């Protein structure tokens, strides 16, 4: 196994060790001040789903791809976001731009492949053709079409920024939306994320899963370290301590550190010097819908993207990023094995439980739901969501 050292300074690592050792000794975990009650309709209300798309996802940046998925000029990738399906295109100057994947003529889906490399995009319906910068190059049989201003009929563009190795998009072509990832992440959280050097990783595999589960149900499943011992008995439960983590809010986002059972090997040691790097998982939760999990030898990135036009449909995107590109059969076999484990955890356990939950919370007479003090990261998420929707001009 190729482990990389935890990319944090000695004081930060010692802080992780102190907190986790202390929780282990006392049978505790980080706690919120009180139990939080929420209305179960947040997972199914169609009116709320419409507001989330308009007031939240139309304004805040979300990850649409890793840069390594479109490394070269003219490379493109299609991403389904909450409001629009977009085509991301690597430009001649190396920047990535994003366009709504709809032909400006009569609305055909312009790009029908998931990814590839093209100098221009022709619509399969009537042959209009667009350059990689989104501009309309040619109208088929133009003299018969009539007079239109081609310079105004380029593809609708969404704001894009590439940072920390990822391509971020604000999912709106309204024209008045800005994108500023540094501002969005905040200095402290951004420092914690940039230590991971995600721009030096390569996306080994990206998978999409379309499920009938509200995106917040899925986000909740990853924010919660309380279910591992019960829902993951067939997979990872033997390897992780249940209900034992530290939660550090960092502005609107937050960082969670969990202990693997292998931490017992270093548990009696001085926290200042104990080598905990291989024994913990560091998760960064990015509001509103993303998680970057640092495993000791790779990254797992999850996005829970609300599907357009539905209150409960979600496209879950999962990526494995590796420090070195997988070239040999041996390397590929190793990451395929990791992927299959993730699949088993998700498909056979998390998704089964949460499909049931989605149906069950649609029962009419269920009363409120509760997040315990130990579900501190979930509480952060739900409080943040409520505040963000309350005043969409000031997220967080
Ligand atoms: S809809 Fe694209 S060319 Fe007609
Ligand atoms: Fe889970």
UniProtKB/TrEMBL annotation:
Keyword Iron-sulfur attributed: yes
SUPFAM superfamilies: Bet v1-like (SSF55961), ISP domain (SSF50022)
Pfam families named in the record: Rieske (PF00355), Ring_hydroxyl_A (PF00848)
Domain of life, per lineage: Bacteria
Required cofactor names: Fe cation
Ranges where the Rieske domain occurs: 62-169
Molecular function per GO: 2 iron, 2 sulfur cluster binding; iron ion binding; monooxygenase activity; oxidoreductase activity, acting on paired donors, with incorporation or reduction of molecular oxygen
InterPro entries: Rieske_2Fe-2S, Rieske_2Fe-2S_sf, Ring_hydroxy_dOase_asu_C_dom, Rng_hydr_dOase-A
Keyword terms, alphabetized: 2Fe-2S, Iron, Iron-sulfur, Metal-binding, Oxidoreductase
Name of the protein in question: Rieske domain-containing protein
